[in-house]
Amino acid sequence: MQCQMCKAESIAMQSIAIPFKSLNFQALKTLVNDTLVVDVIVGNEYLYRDINDSIRQGSLTSVYTNELTDATQYMLQYTAAQLKNMGFRDEIRASGPSGITLLPGGERDIKGDGKGSVNGHIVVVLSSDLTARDAARKLAHEAYGHALFFILRKDPNHAEDKARGGNQELEDQIQRSIEETERNYGDVKPSRSKKIKRDH
């Protein structure tokens, strides 16, 4: 992984401060130390190569809605409590395609989605509509799941029919990575802004 802010030397130095048990940090080190370049892009449009070797444009989006509130709008015969008991969640969640990993040669991978990177790099694209927390979760999924497995020469695809569970090793890696990301968010203490005295 190459970027202006990521240098393999600085990542190696940070190993001292970050516990060795961090799955995400180990994944990041693997990505940084590999010869393949990993581009991470935040945006809602991306270019990809298709099976016919044509360059196409794809798009991402993320819409935040409350599942329970939405259900009360079109299932008028039920109360909110009844809908909640039926499994509708009273929480704001993102929906829609919010991230993708484009791999070199991905357009020829019969198990994949038929989309490959156009520049020979691994390209992770995250929707700019995501909150910071959801972007971190999506990065964990895309980079520390799909991109990492590609570098490790493991199957980076969920399943041939796109149903979850067809590649249990990948699913477990993604789940552990997202869980660590969530724990890291939970461990962060809000910073207090310090008042700065100014001389007038």
What this model shows, in words?
The protein has a 3-stranded mixed β-sheet with strand order 1-7-6, with helices on one face. The protein is globular. Helices cover 36% and strands 16% of the residues. It has 200 residues and is an alpha+beta fold. Mean pLDDT is 85; it is low at 1-8 and 192-200. It has 2 domains: 9-60 and 98-186, no CATH class; 62-95, no CATH class.
Topology:
Blueprint: H1 8-14, H2 23-33, E1 38-42, E2 45-49, E3 55-59, E4 63-66, H3 67-74, H4 80-85, E5 92-95, E6 99-102, E7 122-126, H5 132-151, H6 168-187
Parallel strand pairs: 1-7
Antiparallel strand pairs: 2-3, 4-5, 6-7
Summarize the structure.
The protein has 6 helices and 7 strands; from the N terminus they run ααββββααβββαα. The protein has 200 residues and is an alpha+beta fold.
